[in-house]
Amino acid sequence: MSGAVAGRPLIATAPGYDAAILCFAQASLAQTAHRYLREAVGAGAVVALDSVPVSPQCGPGCAAHCETWWSWFERAFDGSSRPAEMPKSAHPALANLPLALVAIPETLDGYLRQIGDKSRNMIRKALRAGYSVRPFVSAGYLDDIFAINTSKEERGGTPMPPSYRQYPRPMEVAPERHCARHGIANIGCFIGETLVAYCNLHILGELAIINRILGHGAHLRHGIMNLLVRGIVEYGVSRYPLIRAVNYLTLHSGRAGIDAFKRSVGFRSWAVLLCQGSAGHAIVGAAAHG
Predict the structure, then answer these.
(1) Longest Cα pair distance anywhere in the chain, in angstroms?
(2) How far apart are CA 129 and CA 223, in angstroms?
(3) Which of 289, 274, 287 has its CA nearest to residue 93?
C-alpha cells in the first residue's frame, strides 16, 4: 500500500477493478462491503463514502444539514436500495443511478493530470485573462449573483427556471451552525472584484455536493467554468482534507453539452454506496471509467 496523506485513505490496487481501492480499517466490514458491491454493481464501478454522522463535536445545524441531503439523495436518483448484507449501524444506501463524481487527489497537480488538454488550456486562458478563484461570502455579492443568474435566457437548451429571475438571498449559514466536517461554502470566479461565476458547495464528511454552479454568459468563452471547477478541487485539497469526492448530479442528464463539459473537467460516472459511520469504518470501492 502507498503511504496515507493526513485525512485521506490508504490506496491499494486490487485485481478485477479498473482503478484503486480505497481502504479504511475493520477488515470484516471491508470484506462485506467489497462482496456486496461486486455482486450488486460489478467490479470497477464503485466508491463508498462516509458522510460522517452527527456527533457531540457537531454544530446545532449539522443534523438538519445531513438529513436534508440524505433525503435528496434518495429522491433524486430514483430512490436508493439499502443493502441487507451491510450492518444497519452504517445506514448504507446504494444509488440506483451512477453519480458524476470528481475524485479529490492529494495535490492540485494530481487533478490537472486527470483532465484533458482542452480543459487545461481553458484554465490557462482564464488565468491569462486575469480571472481568479477564491471563497466568498455571498451577502456581499448579491448584485453580481443576480447578474449571473439572469445573463442567459436558457442553458443547455433548457429555459432558466423562474427562481433565477428573483433577486437572490445569501446562500450560507452562520459558521457556528456547522462543524469542520459539515457545512456550506461558496467559491467564486472573479475578474477584479466582480463575481462572474459561482459554486454553492455543501459538505457532508467525505462527500461534497455542488448545490448550484453558474457562470455569467458574457464570460463563459474565457474558460471561467473550467477555472472554477479547478478552484473547487483546490478548495477540497487545501481547506477540507476530509473530502474525497465532489458530486455534480450525473453524466446522464440528457443534455449533451453539459455532460460533455462535466467529463472535460474530470467528472466520471461512479456507482455510489453511502454509509453513515465513523472514519474508522472499513469502506471499500473502486473508481469507475467515465
Answers:
(1) 54
(2) 9
(3) 274
Residue 229 CA to residue 116 CA, distance in Å, equals 13
List, in order of start, the domains of the chain with CATH numbers: 106-241 (3.40.630.30)
For residues 137 and 108, give the distance between their C-alpha atoms in angstroms, rounded to a whole number.
Answer: 24
CA distance 26 to 24: 7
Q: How far apart are CA 207 and CA 50, in angstroms?
A: 7
Residue 265: all three cell numbers together: 473537467
3-state SS class at 218: helix
Q: Kindly report the pTM of this predicted structure.
A: 0.80
Is pLDDT larger for residue 171 or for residue 45? 171
Neighbours of 185 (CB within 10 A): 19
Q: Which three cell numbers stand for residue 264?
A: 472535460
Closest CA to 58 of 180, 143, 144, 158: 180
Q: Which residue in this structure is represented by grid cell 473508481?
A: 287
Helix, strand and coil content of the chain, in percent to the nearest 5, comes to 35, 25, 40
Buried b (16+ CB within 10 A) or exposed e, 255-279: eeebbebbbbbbbbbbbbbbbbbbe
pLDDT of residue 204: 86
**Closest C-alpha to 155, from 264, 267, 261:** 261
CA separation for the pair 125, 226 (Å, rounded) = 10
CA pseudo-torsion sign 130, 131, 135, 137: positive
**Rounded Cα distance, 248 and 251, in Å:** 9
Copy the grid coordinates of residue 159: 429555459
The whole-angstrom separation of Cα 79 and Cα 205 is 21
pLDDT tens-place string over residues 121-157: 999 999 999 999 999 999 999 999 999 999 999 988 8
- Where helices occur in 1-138 by DSSP H, the ranges are 27-40, 62-76, 108-114, 117-128
Residue 38 corresponds to which amino acid? R
